[in-house]
Amino acid sequence: MNLALERYKDTPDVWHIAGYNEDIPQNRGSNHASLWRFMSCWGWATWADSWTHYSRDPEELVHLFTDEDIHRFNLDGANDFWAQVLANKSGELKTWAVFWYATIFRNGGLCLFPQFSYVENIGFDGSGSHGVVNSSYGRAGLNTSIDPIWPAKIVEDAAALGQLKDYYT
Whole-prediction pTM value? Predict the structure, then answer.
């Protein structure tokens, strides 16, 4: 993550460095990194100049987001992340991560993801704040390489995003 922070520090389109990626079978063992709009709060980093834009205002998002924005925010319908915004608005949830995602999304930012995770979420054993017991996370082991293959272009990786959407659907 520190390597990525240094590498992309002067790249205004990159807003977020992720240490985690879903257990997507095609990714196992790969050192490629990808850029896409989605972010994960399970081991991450950013820069102060990006974080200054963070806003946790569900009312504002509900007012500003169009149906098309919501569809894209939901990874083109692959998952319902917008429900978290609405649950925060109603008081059912009190979370921060969906608002960091919304901040990045509203500003056209990209998130750098490893193809194979550097972190493991251990909160699904029942000890996590918002998680439920779920043993399906972290099954593939952890990436120990510190020599990632960086994206050639600073654009959303359509193929990697497609794999993520397939994972969620």
Answer: 0.86
